[in-house]
Every structure is written in C-alpha cells, then in structure tokens.
Write a structure and sequence with these properties.
By secondary structure, the chain is an alpha+beta fold. Helix content is about 60%, strand content about 5%. It is built from 12 helices and 4 strands. The protein has a 4-stranded antiparallel beta sheet with strand order 1-2-3-4, with helices on both faces. A hairpin with a 2-residue loop joins strand 1 and strand 2. Helix 2 packs parallel to helix 8, helix 9 runs antiparallel to helix 10 and helix 11 runs antiparallel to helix 12. It starts with a helix and ends with a helix.
Length: about 280
C-alpha cells in the first residue's frame, strides 16, 4: 500500500456510503490503488475530460434512440471508444483514467464512460448488467434502447440482446436483466473483474488484495470476501494475519454454518503451523 493509499481508501469508503455515490469518482479512486502516480490533479483531469466530452453532444437530441445514436456517433465514431479481445488481458482496461486515455477497455468501463458523459448532458441513461457483458440503456422500459459501448456503441435490437445473453450465459434473456444497475453494484462488478484478472496471475496477488480491501469498504458485500482475504494473506506468506482473519470469519459463520466454521478454524491452525 503506497503512502497516500489510506487517504484514498477513506475517501472511497466515504463516497460509497454517501446518499448518491459518484460512479466516476469511485472508479477513479480504484485507479489510485493500481497507479500510484494518479493524484488529485489526475482525478480532476479525468472528471474534466468527461465534462468536455459531454459538451460535444448536441443539445437534447430527442428520445432514447436519438440519445443513443448521438452517443455512438460521438464516443464510438469520432472519439474511437471501443474494446477488443486483447483488452481483457490488461489491468488498465478496468481503470477509468486509463480507459479515458487509451479509449479502450472492458465493456463495463466503457459503459461507465458512456453513462458519465450522457448523464452530464442530461440523457436518461443507466447501466444494464447483462450476464457476462455490460451495456447501457436509454429511456423507460417500454421505450428502452440498448447500446454496446464495447462494440463502438452499436445499437442493439431485442434479438441482439438475446444473442449476447445466450452467448455468455447460455440462457434466454429475462426482464430482470434489463433493469438499471445500481452504481455500487457496478463498482463491485469492476472490483470482481480486477480480482479475476489477478487470480490468473499469481505473481500479482497484491492487486487481488487491494481489490478485496476496496470491496470490503462497500456498505454491502458478501461475508465470504473476508474468508477470501484471509486465504490470500496466507498465500502471500502472512500466516499470522491470515490465521487471525480465518478465526474471525469462523466466529461470524459459526451460528449458521458450524461445520464450515470448524473447517475454517482448522485452516487457521494449519496457517499458524507454517511458522514452525
């Protein structure tokens, strides 16, 4: 953890618990963990860039389809925001300040750019967390228009959305999949992506650790994340710290899952034994 990380984490926790959490700010604060050079000026510059892009949109172009088309023309065609399969291999693809710089990223981060630019311009925009592929939506459910920022902003027909879901989840699309995504759920999903990236690269376990730490600062998070963090500490050689957190997790779950609690306590003992 670099010198300013404690202050950034305090701000992250504070923003996540505010009445209306700022999605862009939370994403930029995630970036401070990965990039120690990202400072207050860099965060301000990213916010200013989002403002600048919003200022390039036509004034209230019309209904949901007109908004989606205007966004696709600006961000997809003129500015070149899109994704490629190779972007899944880069940590930068999950960091908002890098996505703004490179104009490349994962579907969810490109969608964050779209949402933040469109919101600043007054559009009825929101994220749509389709299984395995995040997109953006405009307008109410009975007049909803979906766009895929990863594909340069291609407007999706109902059949397109069905194919996306079938290709990633192997199921048909459900109405619940098309509801607006909560900003904190979006942030959690981004952190999950970062953890998945790190899990495939054991030498980057420090990335998995800070992603877990930020997830635990969110007001609502799965209790199992504490178990995952304890396991990660043990893997990184912090046997005492990991054992202590394993015991704490066991205390939490013992009332509802006593068998699990016993198994976790055994893991804690095994971790302490590694010191001998």
């Amino acid at each position: 953890m670099h010198a300013e990380s404690g202050e950034w984490r305090r701000r992250f926790a504070e923003e996540a618990r505010s009445e209306r959490p700022g999605l862009a700010l939370l994403c930029l604060l995630i970036g401070t963990e990965a990039d120690p050079s990202l400072d207050e000026a860099g965060i301000d510059a990213a916010e200013i860039e989002l403002d600048r892009l919003a200022g390039l949109l036509p004034f209230r172009p019309g209904g949901p389809r007109a908004w989606a088309t205007a966004m696709a023309e600006l961000l997809g065609e003129r500015c070149g925001f899109e994704g490629t399969p190779g972007d899944y291999q880069r940590l930068e693809s999950s960091l908002l300040h890098e996505v703004l710089r490179r104009r490349r990223g994962l579907p969810i981060l490109l969608s964050v750019v779209w949402m933040e630019v469109a919101r600043r311009a007054g559009a009825p925009v929101y994220g749509v967390a389709l299984p395995g592929h995040f997109v953006v939506g405009f307008g109410p459910r009975d007049d909803q228009v979906l766009a895929d920022p990863f594909d340069g902003g291609r407007l999706l027909t109902g059949q397109d959305a069905e194919l996306l879901v079938a290709g990633t989840a192997g199921t048909g699309i459900q109405p619940s999949m098309l509801t607006p995504a909560d900003p904190l759920n979006i942030v959690q999903r981004i952190l999950n992506n970062i953890r998945a990236w790190a899990a495939a690269r054991p030498e980057r376990s420090e990335v998995a650790l800070w992603a877990l730490d930020l997830s635990l600062l969110l007001p609502a998070h799965p209790a199992r994340l504490r178990y995952e963090r304890a396991q990660l500490l043990v893997q990184r050689g912090d046997f005492l710290g990991g054992a202590a957190e394993l015991d704490e997790y066991a205390d939490v779950v013992t009332a509802v899952e006593p068998t699990t609690a016993d198994r976790v306590r055994q893991q804690a003992r095994a971790a302490r034994a590694m010191l001998n």
